[in-house]
Design brief:
Layout: H1 6-34, H2 37-58, H3 70-89
Helix pairs in contact: 1-2, 2-3
Length: 92
């Protein structure tokens, strides 16, 4: 299998990063309106996903299959799971 063009890969990573940041701002807006911690957790998680897309390009890492790159993605998903569990398990 051939390697993708680095310019196209960087452009795609930038587009995904922008999309994750836009979604994060969307959740941040709802957090400011409602004060619900679930929205704040989603905003932070999408910021982590944006950083996960930007890190290989910014740090000039040619292969994303290195383990430490996935730690940001893992942190984002663990944060989402914890926020959903907290929302559903905490009694009012």
């Amino acid at each position: 299998m051939t390697q993708p063009d680095p310019t196209i890969a960087a452009f795609s990573a930038g587009a995904l990063c922008l999309g994750f940041l836009a979604v994060g701002l969307f959740f941040l807006k709802f957090w400011r309106r409602t004060g619900d911690g679930l929205f704040a957790a989603f905003a932070v998680a999408f910021a982590l996903l944006a950083a996960n897309q930007a890190a290989p390009v910014m740090l000039d890492i040619p292969d994303e299959h290195q383990g430490y790159i996935y730690l940001l993605r893992l942190a984002a998903f663990v944060l989402i799971i914890a926020a959903v569990l907290r929302k559903n398990l905490v009694r009012r």
